[in-house]
Design a protein that fits this description.
This protein is an alpha/beta fold and 285 residues long. It has 12 helices and 10 strands.
Amino acid sequence: MIIDRLWERVEKQGPVCLGLDPTPELLPEGFSHRYQNMAQAYWAFNKAIVQATLDVVACYKLQIAHYEALGLAGLACYRDTLRHIRANKGIAIGDVKRGDIGSTAAHYAQAHFQGDFEADFLTLNPMLGSDAVAPFLHYVQSGEKGAFFLVRSSNPGAQEFQELPCSGKPLYMHVAGRVWAWGERFVGRCGYSAVGAVLGANPHVLTTVRKAFPQMFLLVPGYGAQGAGAQDVAPALQNRNGAVIVAARSILGAHKGKPDGAKNFADYAHQAVLTMRTEIQKCLS
């Protein structure tokens, strides 16, 4: 199962999930001038970053908005990056956060679990309920695909709805319970389900959800440029596994300010992953 592959990569290479979310500001100085358009520059940048980090990250997460913003050329870059990761036996998460009624969800599932935009995992919005989720779970049944449902996000406004009290506990805990109900039949050999949760890097939230759902694999954004540190994300992990911790800007932009950064940006990304991994592991010992 794909969840077993992810667990094995965390076990071997640590819990870092590298967010491939390029922006013009993150590219090395003068880099984009070599290419006809920004999408081509993103593709060259992504390819170099992937090749430099395949042996030290657990997986990659691509936020599709960074590519959609560039139109058709950007979507071609998204497609090519996904294919490159998977062709090199990496694990790719399509951060698409889709969620719509069943008939529409079926087309979203087809679009992102097969065809041009095929990923190993998808991020999904659970708020429309079971009938909207079912088309994605159809693909999860094969064992080759997985999903991370948005449970509690990391943005400041998350509390406006996700923290609302409901029957004695915050709304996000009810969402987590439903996500586990969807995923409990997809538990792999590793003991975790291929249906997991997106939880922002809030130590209280991570501790609460981890305690309630020990077999739920977690995708944790918020590390680095968003302000969270190793101590904030440590509660997500059990025996150094069971979660991947996402960082994008702090790794992709690690070359900034370095005299040789434009030339060796991929090497700086590699070192930034190692530093992040070490920081997290120190909090787990």
